[in-house]
Specification:
- The protein is built from 13 helices and 14 strands.
- It has 399 residues and is α/β, with parallel strands linked by helices.
- It has a five-stranded parallel β-sheet with strand order 3-2-1-4-5, sandwiched between helices. The chain has a five-stranded antiparallel β-sheet with strand order 10-9-8-13-14. A four-stranded antiparallel β-sheet has the order 6-7-12-11.
- Homotetramer.
- It is found in: Cytoplasm.
- Its EC number is 6.3.4.5.
Length: 399
């Protein structure tokens, strides 16, 4: 029986070359699956036709923009997900959704093998294969770049020899991954970590140093989900998309970092995520107003662990599923409005209001009308500091 390979297809050089290569190498039929995650750029119909022109027996294009926003970006927002306190997981979030649609295509079209274009040095191979192991462990996996020592030079030579309908020049030195939640840029001169990014590296964000008028925006949340911009009801996809434009126009969301990869190496990464950084900043502020102190403290550790699990490719793991439940419960009262100013590369909170607010003006004020009984504080401080006082006395006794 002829094997059928379901290929995660981006339309670029590597995955386009993978279609005829896998067909020859494995004597298999290749099914290309392209998933629209709001990455923009080339028309998805053109990508579908390219897969067929390269030899795919089936070419599937999935519009997953709303699904990605609601089911992947929103949970990341509710977890305030920033790997190493900086990276908003834009590539990490997309892989489990792509895997989900690869498995669906395999079941519908008789696929027995799944293939991706990841190398053996990156995190994405883990994200794809850990997801597949959880959703469809019966499927085999082939990664041409890793399993057959496939290099970019070999891919270009192969494409030119076969006359494949794709761009094969080296004019773009960067490796780029982008979707609705942001854009990742690596390799090229960025691999020297002393080199500063040039302005042409960026596409989602304008130079924040250029003078321009600030933009004020009010973001409305219901139970941790963004539902309105400036009073206009919108879907999460529409909100992220608009904030990418508005915050991006002010250079919000540029990140330049050396990142700890799962495979054990450090990698220089440049990201731009204007919508994600704006929303996470707003959501954190609303949580500070509506989430009780001990839950907020505990959730910060949960958020960090959630981010690490997703970064490591464990979206479908039992622990991540358990943390999802706690995070969802913590969103019960995270409803209200956050006002922000977008300007000079920053999204700055200038106002917050919520019917679920735990902020009590009469307790917080230092002016007339203060309802806080300060006479209770003296005994509280004495009892609170008693363990440290006793330990200090013991230490003094021991010299």
């Amino acid at each position: 029986m002829t094997e059928r390979v379901v290929l995660a297809f981006s339309g670029g050089l590597d995955t386009s070359v993978a279609i005829p290569f896998l067909a020859e190498k494995m004597n298999a039929e290749v099914i290309a699956v392209a998933v629209d995650l709001g990455q923009g750029g080339e028309d998805m119909k053109a990508i579908r036709e390219r897969a067929l022109d390269c030899g795919a027996v089936e070419s599937v294009v999935v519009d997953a923009r709303e699904e990605f926003a609601a089911d992947f970006c929103v949970p990341a927002l509710q977890a305030n997900a920033l790997y190493m306190d900086r990276y908003p997981l834009l590539s990490s979030l997309s892989r489990p959704l792509i895997v989900k649609h690869l498995v669906t295509a395999a079941k519908q079209l008789g696929g027995t093998i799944v293939s991706h274009g990841c190398t053996g040095k990156g995190n994405d191979q883990v994200r794809f294969e850990a997801g597949l192991a959880a959703l469809a462990p019966e499927l085999k996996v082939v990664a041409p770049a890793r399993d057959f020592a496939w290099t970019r030079d070999k891919a270009i030579e192969y494409a030119e020899r076969r006359g494949l309908p794709i761009e094969t020049t080296k004019k773009n030195p960067f490796s780029i991954d982008q979707n609705l939640w942001g854009r990742a840029i690596e390799t090229g001169f960025l691999e020297d970590i002393w080199n500063a990014p040039s302005e042409d590296v960026y596409a989602y964000t304008a130079d924040p140093a250029v003078p321009r008028e600030p933009d004020e925006v009010v973001i409305t949340f219901e139970r941790g989900v963004p539902v309105k911009l400036d009073g206009r009801p919108l879907t999460p996809y529409e909100i992220i998309d608009e904030l990418n434009r508005r915050a991006g126009a002010h250079g919000v969301g540029r990140i330049d970092m050396v990142e700890d990869r799962l495979v054990g190496i450090k990698s220089r990464e440049v990201y731009e995520a204007p919508g994600a950084i704006t929303l996470i900043t707003a959501h954190l502020e609303l949580e500070s107003v509506t989430v009780e102190r001990d839950l907020a403290r505990f959730k910060r550790g949960v958020d960090q662990r959630w981010s690490e699990l997703v970064y490591d490719g464990l979206w479908y793991s039992p622990l991540k599923r358990g943390l999802d439940a706690l995070i969802a419960d913590a969103q019960r009262y995270v409803s209200g409005d956050i006002r922000m100013t977008l300007h000079g590369g920053r999204a700055t909170v200038t106002g917050r209001r919520s019917e679920q607010s735990l902020y009590d003006f009469s307790l917080a004020t230092y002016d007339t009308g203060d309802s806080f009984d300060q006479s209770l504080a003296k005994g509280f401080v004495q009892l609170f500091s008693l363990p440290s006082k006793i330990a200090a006395a013991r230490d003094a006794k021991q010299g």
